Amino acid sequence: MSRTLKSTPLSLSSPSFSSPFSLKTYAAPHSTLSFKPQKSKAAHTNICNKSPLYSTKRFTSPQNMLDNTSSSSSTRQNRWNLHGRTALVTGGTRGIGRAIVEELVGFGARVHTCCRNGSELDKCLEDWNDVCSGGMISGSVCDVSVGAQRQELMETVSSIFGGKLNILVNNVGTNIRKPMVEFTPEEFSTLMTTNFESAFHISQLAYPLLKASGEGSVVFTSSVSGFVSLKSMSVHGVTKGAINQLTKNLACEWAKDNIRSNAVAPWYIKTSMVEQVLSNKSYLEEVYDRTPLRRLGEATEVSALVAFLCLPASSYITGQIICIDGGMSVNGFFPSHG
Ligand SMILES: NC(=O)c1ccc[n+]([C@@H]2O[C@H](COP(=O)([O-])OP(=O)(O)OC[C@H]3O[C@@H](n4cnc5c(N)ncnc54)[C@H](OP(=O)(O)O)[C@@H]3O)[C@@H](O)[C@H]2O)c1
Predict the structure, then answer these.
(1) Which residues of the chain have pLDDT under 50?
(2) CA within 20 to 30 Å of 47's CA: 158, 254, 274, 310, which one?
(3) Does ligand 1 lie within 6 Å of residue 145's CB atom?
(4) Which atom of ligand 1 is the closest one to the Cα of 97?
(5) DSSP alpha helices (H): ranges in the chain?
């Protein structure tokens, strides 16, 4: 059963945890962010005043006059804010999902999120309450791997956003690491329902709301495992590969309704999901060796890209799966030693 909590603006003190990455305790990167919804007009005006590069006049050229973009994205201010938009982000209480919630609210969107743990959700809503103005963030307890709960979640979303949704971020995902032959049917089913079926069904349920908004953006959280082979991640890779193809198909199928569909595909990002596997120091060294930028990613580095894909600034981008991986997926053979 999902329930809706009264939305309260939030404090960004997400749990600290012992980090294998730095061998010391750190707080999740977004925990230190302050993101009262931007008064983008004023901020924009300031920028414009400071730099002639941002002068509207400078860009009033014959080409600009021929500009065919929709009126909602035709000024810089409109391209880079989400005021008046509504969003659903699944799995928004930790890790990448939490960073996405905060990023979207920072751009002015109203966001609904969900997770399974009710007390963790309450804590997040309380925290967020301290830094947001009222009504910007709300949440439901919902296990997205259960069909009836997905249905109930979307009914809640429809009711609080008046039947219109601009942004859907299908973020929830999990992992079971083991060789393919060792998977039980139950484990296989857990990964398929949590990672793929949930995103497929929530997208289906969200379609009328996205269409009704007149300008929709769906973003999936995929993984580099959907592109390249990763140890003990055959089934995870299959679920993310399916997400990648769905991303492309929806881009074509829903373009007529002005709904875009894109995905982000991270490599290792510092979240609770990968804390345990990266606590193995020699494995972590191998990860660094394989990653041209020689570090792990931050949740905010993913959320920034997701926000961009939701902004009118990316209005001509659809059907793309963008790796956010420190160069890992393009590293054919480039040994770090010699
Ligand atoms: N971290 C990485 O290195 C990495 C790399 C590639 C791809 N990804 C992808 O990024 C996404 C987010 O990963 P993350 O690392 O941020 O994970 P995380 O730190 O484990 O956070 C997962 C979030 O989703 C919620 N959640 C999990 N299962 C759920 C379910 N069945 N129903 C509803 N909510 C659920 C969790 O809350 P509850 O537990 O309370 O439900 C939590 O809010 C996933 O799709 C993952 O595959 C992550």
Answers:
(1) 1-68
(2) 310
(3) yes
(4) 16
(5) 40-50, 62-65, 76-79, 95-106, 118-129, 147-160, 185-191, 198-213, 234-253, 272-275, 281-290, 299-310
